[in-house]
Amino acid sequence: MHAWLVWSSMALLLGVVELFSLTGALGVLGGAALLTAGAAGIGLPVAAQFAVFALASVLGLVLLRPLARRHRRAAASARFGVDALVGESGPVLREVTRHGGRVRIAGEEWTARPFDDALVIPEGATAEVLRISGSTAYVYPGSGSWKLQ
Where in the numbering of this chain does the NfeD-like C-terminal domain appear (predicted)? Predict the structure, then answer.
């Protein structure tokens, strides 16, 4: 049997197993096997093929896997939807009390309530979003823009 066919079969097998494990390591090894199949196809001796496989595997695992892990971690921490509004600040359009109010957050007008029911945030002040529940933003005032009720 031709060496390039053995390496290609190994690459295919590792690729299929990677689809089920999703670790990334087997995919890197499959890529190294595919690269080695190319080396076998151009006629390199068996010892050189193993050297190509070892070098490609080590480089792939050392260089590519940490990049993939970092990318996966960054994507998981990305916030979207209303969760992305937490921490944003905006002007108070209508005085915010425990009974209601309006603020502009990220260009949109939101119903607002103070995070602390004892606070009143006057119109024109800046408020920061601490939590969103349904269509209501629970806000806390910026420095010097609040009074106790």
Answer: 82-141
